[in-house]
Write a structure and sequence with these properties.
Layout lengths: L23 E2 L11 H6 L4 H18 L4 E3 L3 E4 L2 E4 L5 E5 L2 E5 L4 E4 L7 H7 L3 E3 L2 E4 L7 H13 L2
Parallel strand pairs: 1-5
Antiparallel strand pairs: 2-3, 3-6, 4-5, 6-7, 7-9, 8-9
Helix pairs in contact: 2-4, 3-4
Length: 157
């Protein structure tokens, strides 16, 4: 059995003073599209989810002062931010805040859930996971607390 010789690689040089370090910008599949968010919501089968989605859309429009953009085929987002993983250094361009009406529930993308712990205790019926808040319908939660979650997320952008 032959022993393989180690492959020699050139050492990486640190960036020269004054020159930016290249980022590890990842290319992701979920990107902004030209599809109308309103048209997308109008196609949501569940009438309650459709009504709630229009309410959330207006809430987020008012809070951000921005127009909604479809990200991929099912996420409505507001704003754009480059997020960097502290663990890997990987960067992605992503929305600042957004939501998606799914069959099982409505997913609200708040990104950093750790800054919402106290407010979530007062929110009402919900689940969380990663940077997401999952609600079945708006009537299950306190609208003022929901607006506070949105505002807190935007302050951290």
């Amino acid at each position: 059995m032959a022993v393989k010789k180690p492959v020699k690689t050139k050492p990486t040089k640190p960036a020269a003073k004054g020159k930016p370090v290249k980022s590890k910008l990842a290319v992701i599949k979920t990107v902004p599209t030209k599809v109308s968010p309103e048209d997308f919501i109008n196609k949501v089968d569940n009438e309650q989810n459709r009504k709630d989605s229009f309410s959330i859309l207006e809430m987020m429009k008012k809070a951000t002062g921005e127009e909604p953009v479809m990200w991929g085929s099912s996420i409505i987002g507001f704003g754009n931010k480059r997020y960097k993983s502290p663990a890997t250094g990987r960067e992605v361009d992503w929305m600042v805040i957004g939501f998606s009406p799914r069959k099982a529930n409505i997913t609200v993308y708040l990104m950093d859930m750790s800054k919402h712990e106290k407010a979530l205790e007062k929110l009402g019926k919900h689940k969380t996971g990663g940077g997401c808040l999952y609600i079945n319908k708006l009537s299950d939660i306190d609208a003022k607390v929901q607006m506070g979650l949105i505002d807190t997320t935007l302050k951290g952008k």
